[in-house]
Structures are given as C-alpha cells and as structure tokens.
Structures
1.
Amino acid sequence: MEINVLSNLRKNSYQVFSCSVFTVRCDNYFIAKANSIHDFFIIEPTNWVNAVAITDNQEVILVKQYRYGIETITLEIPGGMIDKEELPEIAAQRELLEETGYKAKNWQLIGITDPNPAIQNNKCYIFLATGLEFTTNPKLDNTEEIEIVTVPLNKIPEMIQQGKITHSLVITAFYYYNLLKEK
C-alpha cells in the first residue's frame, strides 16, 4: 500500500508554547482517510550535535551527567544545541571544548539523524573527532555538572549491551562510527 501524503493537507499552524530550548506548535491537518481535521503537536528544538571523540590511544571521551528528564545519571558523548547561525561542525567543536576541555585536529561528519520525527522537527549532526589534545578545563553552564570519563573504544558495544550507555542518540552515533569503520 502506497501512502498518499497529498491526501493529508495542513490547514493551519500556530505556536502554543515557547521556552529557551524549544517551541511547540499545533498543526491542523485534514486527513482524507478520516474525512476530518486532526491536531498534531510538533516540538521545535534547535538542531543538535554530538561528537564521537577518540584519542590516539583508541579511547572514547565520554561525559557523565545528570539528566532531569529521566532523573538519573547518564554516560554520553559530548554534544548539545547548535546556536543560531552556527554551523554544525563549529557547534561540535565548541561543545567538545566546553564539556571536556579537548580540541580535535580532525573533524568528519559521519551521520545526520532525525531524533524523533513523530513529534520533533530537528536534526542531530554526528561528528567523528580525532587528533585530540587537552587544552583547558571544561567551561560548563551553571546548570551542568559533568564528569569526564575515558573508555577503551572496544568496550563501547559491551557497555551498550549492558545498559551502561542508553541514550539513543549516543548509540546512533556509535552505529554511524561502526559503519564508517566497515568501509
């Protein structure tokens, strides 16, 4: 069965909420199959970046931090929001430096993903960062508490399987990294 996108027409769209990290809009769509108008709520965050940062010793730079949404500490790769008018690669470089104090000589875009296309309209750009050099202490936001952890790259799959790394965008980043290695 082929999906007929043209049979679903957006009739109206308006903002229902706004805060510092996202807005929410309501789109009214006429759904031909249902012969009626339905509301769809779309979260509009900025685009994001993540950096798979690997040392010359084949260790991954990870960050431990408390995540308020799930009320627990997570183990992640450095990343964050892309500032307005900022290029994704520049944002990835900034986030790596701010969160870990590391700079990378080499940057490669290895993937772009839709974090949650059912209700969000943003992208996450995934970069590989190599040629790392520790240059300064992390410069964290007032709301951030981060512990830097280095883990041997070959331990990452096991950590994912054991539930030590659960963030879906981090797991996606390592998937893209593995695809790159297989080439």
2.
Amino acid sequence: NRAMEVALGIADAETYLQGMLERGFTVDQVAPRLSFIFGTHMEVLAEAAKFRVLRRMYATRMVDLFGATEE
C-alpha cells in the first residue's frame, strides 16, 4: 500500500529526527541528510506520484513540526 509506505517512512524520519534533536543536533543539520528506501512496482506513474507526495509531505512536516528552513 503506497499510502502506508509514505506514512511509515515519514513517521520513522520524525522519530529519528527527534532523537537527534535530543542529542543536540539541529533540524537543519539532520533533515537534509535523511534518506528513504522504498520498493517500486510496475505502475510507473503511481510510483512517481508516491515519491513526489513523500518529498512534499516530508518537507512540509519538517518546517511545520521542527521549524526547518525551507532550503
């Protein structure tokens, strides 16, 4: 399920980022360096849409929840 992949990926990133913030790092140091690994399927357009949604949601949540700059 593509929606579940995106939701779990973002939740994992937020948990990891929260741990790094507790250790003294800033969101702008950590967030650009996080990466995601997802499986892809034969439906190319749907998979491309999944990655576009993931990127936009990740950026929005980093700004809204953690105060990241929009760079």
3.
Amino acid sequence: NSELTCPWHGAKWDIKTGSLISFPQKLKPLQSHKVLIENDTLYLEM
C-alpha cells in the first residue's frame, strides 16, 4: 500500500509522491524524502 492516511481527518496521500489523494478540504501536497533503513539506523535524505 503506497498511501498514508490521517486517522483523525481521513486525508490520504501517496507516500511515493506526496500528492494528495483525497480529503474533504483543499490541502497542499506533502514533501516526500528518500529513506534508508540500515541495521537499526534510519537515514533520511533531505
């Protein structure tokens, strides 16, 4: 599943692109970042 869903508002975003999929109000897209998990370390490329 490539969607992120807000448990409070029900908004849905595509986690690969940050694009808003659905929401009753107009929202801005989220910014997406590359993530690497190596052993117990999380790396975020910004």
4.
Amino acid sequence: MMIPMLLAMTGLFLLFVGMLGVALYAENRKRR
C-alpha cells in the first residue's frame, strides 16, 4: 500500500516546515 510512504513523506515535510519556522522565529528574536 502507499499509506506508509505517504505518512513518511508528510512527516518529513512537517519536520522540515517546523525546523524552518523555528529558524525564522529565532532569527526574528535575535534581531529585536
């Protein structure tokens, strides 16, 4: 089935977005 692959891809995407958000948040806090 394709469900495990879809879940893995979604998990990686969420992880990437989370890391990007944290990096942007840290950058904004450092600037102010």
